[in-house]
């Protein structure tokens, strides 16, 4: 059920609904140096994230999850499998971008917009990743680490 296929040229990922943000972005990082906004909770499914609006990593730069939903395949209430995009069955795409539990079909595949991987994509508790370059961001790391060390010291004193 965890299907991911990437068209790096067109910058589109076709995914099954249960694929988590972490699974998708790990593959994008390791194999393509690409990225798409996903939930701050790494195991959150991309399907519910995008259909519920989706405010995630780097959304200030790349928009909400639903803005990165380019198209979907879905089964309608009448039992028909259709494709919805901005040019085909566009009402369904419009509804999928944020209707969440109110959506009136069952999505089977999502087509997600991809971006060039930015230098910083997520902040962990004690470290800052700058994974597209393969190095830590020294500047942000220096800013983030001392307060955490101070808090730990305070707890253990
Ligand atoms: C630990 C954690 C961290 C989170 N962090 C963020 C965050 O940073 N940003 C953010 O925006 N949200 C966040 N969320 C909320 C998260 O985006 C929603 O809970 C989302 O619904 C989870 O996705 P899911 O695929 O598990 O969806 P589900 O909970 O399975 O589904 C949510 C709704 O979407 C609809 N839906 C889902 N899949 C389909 C489908 N295939 N076809 C039709 N309808 C479908 C259903 O109607 C369902 O009611 C977080 C949630 C958790 C638990």
Explain the overall architecture.
The protein is an alpha+beta fold. The protein has two domains: 4-118, Uridine Diphospho-n-acetylenolpyruvylglucosamine Reductase, domain 3 (2-Layer Sandwich); 119-157, no CATH class. 31% of the residues lie in helices and 22% in strands. It has five helices and nine strands. It has helices spanning 21-32, 46-51, 59-62, 90-96, 138-156, and strands spanning 4-7, 12-15, 34-35, 69-75, 81-84, 106-113, 115-116, 129-130, 135-136. The chain has a five-stranded antiparallel beta sheet, covered by helices on one side. The protein is globular and about 60 Å long. The termini are far apart. Residues 125-134 have low confidence and may be disordered. The protein binds flavin-adenine dinucleotide.
Say which molecules are bound, naming each kind only once.
flavin-adenine dinucleotide
Which descriptor suits the 3D outline? globular
Average predicted local confidence, pLDDT: 85
Report the CATH architecture of the largest domain: 2-Layer Sandwich
- The proportion of residues forming helix, as a percent range, comes to 25-40%
Q: Over the alpha carbons, how many angstroms does the gyration radius reach?
A: 18 Å
- Count of helical segments? 5
Total E-strand runs: 9
Strand numbers in spatial order across the main sheet: 1-2-6-4-5
Spans of at least 5 consecutive residues whose pLDDT stays below 50 are 125-134
Characterize the largest beta sheet: strand count, sense, and whether it forms a barrel. Answer: 5 strands, antiparallel
Instruction: Label the structural class.
Output: alpha+beta
Give the CATH level 1 class of the largest domain: Alpha Beta
The percent range for strand residues is: 15-25%
The SSE string, one letter per element, is EEHEHHEEHEEEEH
The CATH topology label of the largest domain is Uridine Diphospho-n-acetylenolpyruvylglucosamine Reductase, domain 3
Q: Measure the end-to-end span.
A: 49 Å
Number of domains: 2
């Amino acid at each position: 059920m965890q299907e991911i296929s990437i068209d790096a040229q067109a910058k589109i990922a076709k995914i099954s609904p249960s694929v988590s943000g972490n699974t998708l972005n790990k593959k994008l990082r390791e194999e393509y140096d690409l990225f798409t906004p996903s939930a701050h909770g790494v195991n959150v499914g991309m399907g519910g994230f995008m259909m519920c609006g989706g405010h995630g990593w780097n959304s200030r730069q790349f928009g909400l999850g639903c803005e990165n939903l380019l198209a979907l395949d879905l089964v309608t209430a009448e039992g028909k499998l259709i494709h919805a995009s901005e040019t085909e069955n566009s009402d369904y795409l419009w509804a999928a971008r944020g209707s969440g539990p109110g959506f009136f079909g069952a999505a089977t595949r999502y087509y997600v917009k991809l971006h060039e991987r930015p230098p910083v994509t997520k902040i962990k508790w004690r470290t800052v990743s700058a994974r597209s370059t393969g190095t830590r961001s020294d500047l942000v790391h220096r800013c983030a680490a001392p307060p955490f060390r101070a808090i730990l010291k305070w707890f253990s004193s």
